[in-house]
């Protein structure tokens, strides 16, 4: 009996050691190595984005609604509103990822949507009817970095004016940062606001003078 128990214990320890090496060391190292192959490393490290000076400023996967120092001269493109925001538009709490879970007939949600539409219309200098749906409804995560091309285009005149750029130049940036439908037919095109704001900042930076 003792001999059998000893053999079983030794066999169990051997299996434990082998699986520890394979699954606890070998497998993670293999996954890490594959994820750092050319073309995959940036995504594995969080899809980080850098400012024109090279400083990491965020992730292409996380939408952070920027706050203008002077609301009367707002130079930024804005993301969809977040359910975690204390106000109707934001910014939201990036440490919290959740939707409001309110239905389409919720009176509070309808009032918030109406308020958002009026605020965005005033900010962009347009009629409320021109404000697209995604501009006034929060995403399920609250951290969606994408907006519709229509919402991006609505913001082009303001962003161009405040940043001293032409509307054509800003529109080209919008087009460059627009992602097509996944696999060519799923979902809708989206504009990555985080990447777009960095592109606008780079476009307004004066070019370095030659020596």
TrEMBL record:
InterPro entries linked: KdpC
Self-association and partners: The system is composed of three essential subunits: KdpA, KdpB and KdpC.
Organism: Pseudonocardia hispaniensis
Protein role: Part of the high-affinity ATP-driven potassium transport (or Kdp) system, which catalyzes the hydrolysis of ATP coupled with the electrogenic transport of potassium into the cytoplasm. This subunit acts as a catalytic chaperone that increases the ATP-binding affinity of the ATP-hydrolyzing subunit KdpB by the formation of a transient KdpB/KdpC/ATP ternary complex.
Lipid bilayer topology: Single-pass membrane protein
Membrane-spanning parts: 12-34
Keywords for the protein's UniProt record, in alphabetical order: ATP-binding, Cell membrane, Ion transport, Membrane, Nucleotide-binding, Potassium, Potassium transport, Transmembrane, Transmembrane helix, Transport
HAMAP family: KdpC
Name assigned to this protein: Potassium-transporting ATPase KdpC subunit
Family in the record: Belongs to the KdpC family.
Renumbered residue ranges of the record's region Disordered: 79-100
Compartments it resides in: Cell membrane
